[in-house]
Amino acid sequence: MTDRLPEGELSALATAALEGLGASPRDAADCARILVLADLFGLSTHGVSRIASYGERVDLGGIDAKAAIGVEVASPAIVRVDGANGLGPVVGMRALEAAMARARETGVGIAFARASNHFGPISPYGYLAAEAGFATMIGSNATTTIAPWGGGDARLGNSPLGFGVPQPGGPPFLLDMAMSVVARAKIRGAAARGEAIPPTWATDAAGRPTTDPKAALEGFLLPIGGHKGYGLALVVDLLAGLLSGASYLTHVSSWSADPEKPQDLGHFFLAIDTRVLGTPEWLAARLADFRAILHASPPADPAAPVVVPGEIELGRMARYRAEGVPVAKADLEAMRAYAARR
């Protein structure tokens, strides 16, 4: 069961819930901003529904909602962010702000964050950066769910990678993707319906491709693009985990298996100040033409015209802002319970 809330009301409730967990007003508002944007984009699995799991880990000592996040300028263009085991979206916001601050000075800036936790989806960060005139490349590592190519056990995470490019006066380009062919939730759905899955989705516990969803749930997700996706997932973890000073690969703690332990996730945020490349009008015209070239392609299915990454999510945002944001009743109850702690 779901209810629909106006964006402002949902943001206020999420902020109050995070304050109830111990976050400062600023940190709570920034965390809520990322999670509410996720719901506006239709990414409900990474939106305010995450507050309940954040709260469980805060209560167990696995996350410090009051963390004093540190920012260290390592060079004119490079920043290190010590998340101090804080709320992931707060660490993410501090890293994004730091990367953009460096980019304002040098044209390009990158922030490497360590000692973090689940930071929500990438597209809200890309959206906020694009609104401020920055192109971005953002990534995070994750708990292990993917076997190395040819391997028989999980050694790397389903690490997300995203890109954003602003279109001044228009919708930005936003790409947000994980490294697996499908999310585990789709496999669970197939198992519940008693349906087979394609052999390209996952392996069984021995690392063999399987069409049995139950066997797949006991096995490992397959990366996009076969060995190429495996390589790309490793690059994300090299940047987000290894270079940041965070944990990487099997060193990352599982939030579900060990919720009381810090995960020590790592993120990277690369920001490019597009204004050093040309005027806003120049960029707007070029991206509009870029988009028009793609839209002009005759659709293979007339009912499914070509879309550019980000358009579906931004369309949902416009609709939900008009109609209200759908939120599960259980998530609303959890947020109200946390808000009552203030």
SSE layout:
Layout: E1 2-5, H1 7-20, H2 25-40, H3 50-60, E2 70-75, E3 78-82, H4 88-106, E4 108-116, H5 123-131, E5 134-140, E6 144-146, E7 156-157, E8 161-165, E9 173-177, H6 184-193, E10 202-203, H7 213-217, E11 220-221, H8 227-242, E12 265-273, H9 280-295, H10 311-323, E13 325-328, H11 329-339
Parallel strand pairs: 3-4
Antiparallel strand pairs: 1-13, 2-3, 4-12, 5-8, 5-12, 6-7, 8-9, 10-11
Report on the architecture of this protein.
With 342 residues, the protein is of the alpha+beta class. It has 11 helices and 13 strands. It has a 7-stranded mixed sheet with strand order 2-3-4-12-5-8-9, sandwiched between helices. Helix 4 (88-106) links the parallel strand 3 (78-82) and strand 4 (108-116). Helix 1 crosses helix 11. The protein is globular, with a radius of gyration of 20 Å. The two termini are 27 Å apart. The mean pLDDT is 95.
Mean pLDDT: 95
Q: Which sequence of SSEs, written as H and E, runs from N to C? A: EHHHEEHEHEEEEEHEHEHEHHEH
- The N- and C-terminal alpha carbons lie at a distance of 27 Å
- Percent helix among the residues? 40-55%
Report on the biggest sheet. Answer: 7 strands, mixed
Taking all Cα atoms into account, the compactness measure Rg is: 20 Å
Task: Please provide the count of β strands.
Answer: 13
Structural class label: alpha+beta
Strand order of the largest sheet: 2-3-4-12-5-8-9
Strand content bin:
15-25%
Indicate the overall shape: globular
How many helical stretches?
11
Contiguous runs where pLDDT drops below 50 for at least 5 residues: none
